[in-house]
Amino acid sequence: MSNKSMQAYWKRNISYVLILLGVWFFSSYVLGILLAEPLNAISLGGFKLGFWFAQQGSMYIFVILIFVYVYLMNKLDQEFDVDEK
User: Fold this and answer.
1) Contact, 57 vs 30, CB < 8 A?
2) pLDDT for 54-77, tens place per residue?
3) Distance between CA 10 and CA 20 in Å, rounded?
4) Which of 2, 11, 33, 40 is placed for a possible disulfide with 48 were both Cys, Cβ 3.0 to 4.6 Å?
5) Is the Cβ–Cβ distance between 83 and 20 less than 8 Å?
6) What is the pTM of this model?
7) Pairing relationship of beta strands 43-44 and 47-48 according to DSSP bridges
C-alpha cells in the first residue's frame, strides 16, 4: 500500500471512529444525563425514558455501534485491498 493510500485509509478510519464515538457520547451523556428529566415524561417498557437511556440504552447503542464499526471497516478494508481473503 502506498503512503498516500495508507493516509487516506487511516483518515477514513479515524473519521469513522470519531463519528461513532460522537453518537455514543450523545446517547449516553446527552440523552442519559443532560436530557434525562425531559425524557422521563416518556415511558418505555414501564420505565422512564431518561432512566432507560442512563441504565440500558447507552449500552445497547454501544453494542450496535460495534457492529456498525465492523461493517464499515470490512468495507473499507475491501476498498483499499487490505481485507482478509
Assistant:
1) no
2) 888 888 999 999 999 999 999 999
3) 15
4) 40
5) no
6) 0.84
7) antiparallel
